[in-house]
Design brief:
about 150 residues, alpha+beta, Thiol Ester Dehydrase, Chain A, two-stranded antiparallel sheet, about 40% strand
Length: about 150
């Protein structure tokens, strides 16, 4: 089945500009989020290292990693459906913490597994900058109001 399309597909740069203009508070409380690549039902998002995301013990906090995973799914949906899908909402997310991430930029690699008229399902892999081993894995379901239109 061909992908659902709700509008022109924005580039990573256009998504960054949209986020900065319409949703800038997403950068608060942890490192700045930057879309590095988006399209073809996938996205790569970087969360820049920031002292606010480090918990006692010198590791990246779970809430910071959860935020990166959730935001990355939203980005992949926008990249596929366009800004008409900006009302997409997280329905559920499960995250598995696999290894202790060191204080560094965090990278999210997201892949949309299903993109239907009402729901999107994604898998996210999280990495510490410069490390090959995955530090967390998440699956998420988003609701697409009005069929993503």
């Amino acid at each position: 089945m061909p992908p659902v399309s709700a509008g022109p597909r924005p580039s990573a740069a256009e998504i960054n500009a949209f986020i900065d203009a319409q949703f800038a508070n997403v950068h608060e409380g942890s490192g700045r989020l930057v879309v590095e690549a988006a399209g073809d039902r996938a996205a790569r998002v970087r969360m820049h290292q920031d002292a606010r995301m480090i918990r006692p013990g010198g590791t990246v906090s779970g809430p910071s990693m959860f935020k990166l995973a959730d935001f990355s799914v939203y980005v992949a949906i926008l990249a596929e459906l366009g800004f008409a899908a900006q009302q997409a909402l997280t329905s559920s997310m499960t995250i598995n913490f696999l290894a202790r991430p060191h204080p560094a930029d965090m990278i999210a690699e997201v892949r949309l597994i299903k993109l239907g008229r009402r729901l999107a399902v994604a898998e996210v892999q999280l990495y510490s900058e410069g490390e090959a081993a995955m530090v967390a894995q998440a699956t998420s379901t988003y609701v697409l109001p009005n069929g993503g239109r």
